[in-house]
Amino acid sequence: MPPPFLLPVLLLVLPPSPQAAAAAEDICIVGSGISGASTAFFLTNYTAPYPAPQLRVFERRDRVGGRLATVTVAGEVFEAGGSIIHPRNLHVRRFADLLGLTAKTGGDDDEDWLGIWDGARFVFKTLRPPPPGSSWLRRKLHGLANSLLLLRRYGLSLLRMDSFVQEMLQKFMLYYNGFESRPVFDNVEEMLKWSGLYGLTRRTLEEELIDAGLNTQTISELVTVITRINYGQSTSISGLAGAVSLAGSESGLWSIKGGNWQLAAGLLKTANATLHLQEGIESISDAGDYYVLKSNKGHEYNCTVTVVATPLDEVNITFIPPISIPPRKMQHTHTTFVRGLLDPKFFGLSSVSDIPELIGTMELPDIPFSCISVRKKHGEHDMTYKIFSRVKLEDALLDQMFSTREETIRIDWPAYPHYQAPEDFAPIILDGRHLYYVNTFESAASAMETGAVAAENVARLIISRLPLGLRAGLSSAAVPEPHIESSAGEEEGPRRVDL
Ligand SMILES: Cc1cc2nc3c(=O)[nH]c(=O)nc-3n(C[C@H](O)[C@H](O)[C@H](O)COP(=O)(O)OP(=O)(O)OC[C@H]3O[C@@H](n4cnc5c(N)ncnc54)[C@H](O)[C@@H]3O)c2cc1C
């Protein structure tokens, strides 16, 4: 029940008939990935203990999670899309705790034995890891020896790289501040300026790192290996995407046991959202007080608020009237799982045991893949590998790379934006009314956590701008105090409702 002082207001603003109320009270979310699921979660969470408006989530595929998905090879489950979670990704950490999901550290993405391949030879290799079951002391000494090896090759650049990442992380942590010290943002530029991260989107990673004092060898080898692994791109990505990418090489990374997609599934369930699986939205039309969403099943839904929680760059949704967003290309990452054995001859080696478990690559023409990693050793001559590449790896090439190949699984992801500097951002409010776009924030950096951070802001923005009829019943204590950072004249209609 709404607090008694709200009742007179409610009576004034309630729609005239129950039918009209039904038509006007849905919040519709297009996309069931981590961004859409987080939006649904935060909308419900921030309006508790009062019931949130009816949430509908549309997903064109037959499963939730979007770019969080697993594949099974030889009975083992592997992450095929978003896989690693940084220890300071606080929203995702909280989601996992809340949903009772088990964190998995080490193993899946915690490679030890790195080799940097230039297409002809390994220009750098860390030490082969001690055998499983080795003593704590032996493992410690191994770690120390590797640190010394890295320090000898890259020198102080390693420390400078770390400072660069820590500075970015410190600023990013501001997005977890309480409502009293964190405004609601209606555009990405202001959101980034507020935390001090905007400058990093104006220059390339390479420019930033040269200014930070890194030497060119570190940038062309270690840094490039990391950006190619995490974003399939070179060091000409923006400084911010680059810093996020470098953070993904730190220690303490984790994932959800059984698959990260469970985050999206659990959040949608917690939000009590009505999930429309295998129902793609084909058009979104502005009908005045609400939007009409037409689906590929021939259904129409009237939604007071519509949230687009998918990159719009490769999906075919017709907006009526049309919206205008800056062009953005998605970087495709081809993820290939191979069960078999790499051929040492392909790497100019005589024994398979000399091939590092994580092969990173430099930005040179003719290297057909970004990285190869051993995901599981089933036996001495039977492994599961994961390969990232910018183009499809044809059978003929795989036959050269592998001496045996029992199973091959290929996925072509429109994986993340193709980053550039300076970066352009689409609006969060696409039409100046109630059509929101979460994935504009992906132009800053693409990750599970950035999706959740963007979604949290969008949820607060929606609540702060809801028409009175919908906002009715929300607890004023629970609703974040809306202090909107805005560029002047960007929108029309009520931006804040004082009850
Ligand atoms: C290979 C790869 C590796 C990655 N590695 C990491 C990593 O290690 N760590 C990390 O944090 N992040 C990583 N990422 C990035 C991370 O996976 C994404 O940033 C994140 O999952 C994006 O979530 P999202 O909800 O914004 O979008 P998506 O997950 O893309 O969700 C959008 C959903 O919308 C649906 N949809 C689209 N159009 C329609 C329509 N018209 N109607 C209905 N539904 C529609 C799609 O089917 C999809 O399910 C990686 C991504 C890839 C591809």
TrEMBL record:
Biological processes annotated in GO: prenylated protein catabolic process; prenylcysteine catabolic process
- Cofactor(s) of this protein: FAD
Record GO terms (molecular function): prenylcysteine oxidase activity
Q: Does the keyword Glycoprotein apply?
A: yes
| Annotated InterPro entries | FAD/NAD-bd_sf, Prenylcys_lyase, Prenylcysteine_Oxase1
Positions of the region Disordered?
480-499
Stretches assigned to the Prenylcysteine lyase domain: 144-466
Signal sequence extent: 1-22
Q: Which UniProt keywords apply?
A: FAD, Flavoprotein, Glycoprotein, Oxidoreductase, Signal
Family, similarity comment:
Belongs to the prenylcysteine oxidase family.
Protein name in the entry: Prenylcysteine lyase domain-containing protein
Q: Which organism was this protein described from?
A: Triticum urartu
